[in-house]
Amino acid sequence: MDDSDARQASAPQAAGQASAQEAEWIRQIADGDRRAFEKLYEVYGPRIFRFAIRMVKEETKAEEVVNDVMFEVWKSAGRFEARSKPSTWILGIARFRALNAIRGKKIETEELDDLTPVAAPLEDAGDLMDRASQIAQVKAALDELSPEHREVVELTFFQGCSYKEIAKIAGCPEGTVKTRMFHAKKRLQPILSAVAAGGSL
Fold first, then answer.
1. Predicted local distance difference test score (pLDDT) of residue 101
2. At what angle do helices 34-56 and 59-76 cross, to 10 degrees?
3. Closest CA to 116 of 96, 133, 103
4. 110-201, which class in CATH?
5. CA-CA 20 to 30 A from 69: which of 55, 88, 110, 124?
6. Residue 151 backbone phi and psi in degrees, to 5
7. What is the C-alpha to C-alpha distance for residues 125 and 122, in angstroms, rounded to an integer?
8. What CA–CA distances, in Å, run from 31 to 35, 93, 188?
9. Nearest to 196 by CA among 144, 145, 137, 121
10. What is the pLDDT of residues 71-98, one digit of tens each?
11. pLDDT at residue 57 greater than cutoff 80
């Protein structure tokens, strides 16, 4: 077995150990352990924020979602029965809070300042401008997706969730998740193909 095979074989084991540790933190939180809550917050605060900012497109609102989610985790830890992974449970709460945050609110285009690429030593100004343009095109394409389609892209590619996990988070059949992903990819394909033709990101 080479190094690559060994890494692939150990990945599920590492993920399982992480889930077990997170489940233990939730059990401790149910007993009022603030240190366990801080550890869980360190792991999930950034994940929830990345999910929320892509959904609500507003930093202040995304931070509110993080706080609301983690407060709900603190209150509801005793009701977590470990029938699903901690990540599925927590991201399910995050989805509910994010949808509440965008309900009745016009979605604005997210600023790209945080994604402005830094030029490599051999990258000239023209290349840098092309690269920034490609990023803008991809983000514009994501912004055109419906919230339902955008969330399956986010949960799949940025949160690493399986379709089965997304179905639990979204409260819908797994077939619905697959259908949403199909339509999301179909909508994104033209712009992604155009970007790829102009050079990889």
1. 85
2. 140
3. 133
4. mainly alpha
5. 110
6. -70, -35
7. 10
8. 11, 20, 46
9. 137
10. 999 999 999 988 889 999 999 999 999 9
11. yes
Q: Please, are residues 72 and 90 in contact by the beta-carbon 8 Å criterion?
A: no
Picking from 12, 4, 7, 48, the residue whose alpha carbon sits closest to that of residue 162 is 12
If you ran DSSP here, which 8-state letter would residue 122 be given?
T
SS3 for 178? Answer: helix
Other beta carbons less than 10 A from residue 157's beta carbon: 10
The residue count of the chain comes to 201
**CATH of region 11-108:** 1.10.1740.10
Looking up tokens 């929320």, which residue turns up?
A: 52
- Same CATH fold assignment for domains 11-108 and 110-201: no
Residue 69 neighbours by CB under 8 Å, 6+ apart: 44, 48, 90, 93, 94, 97
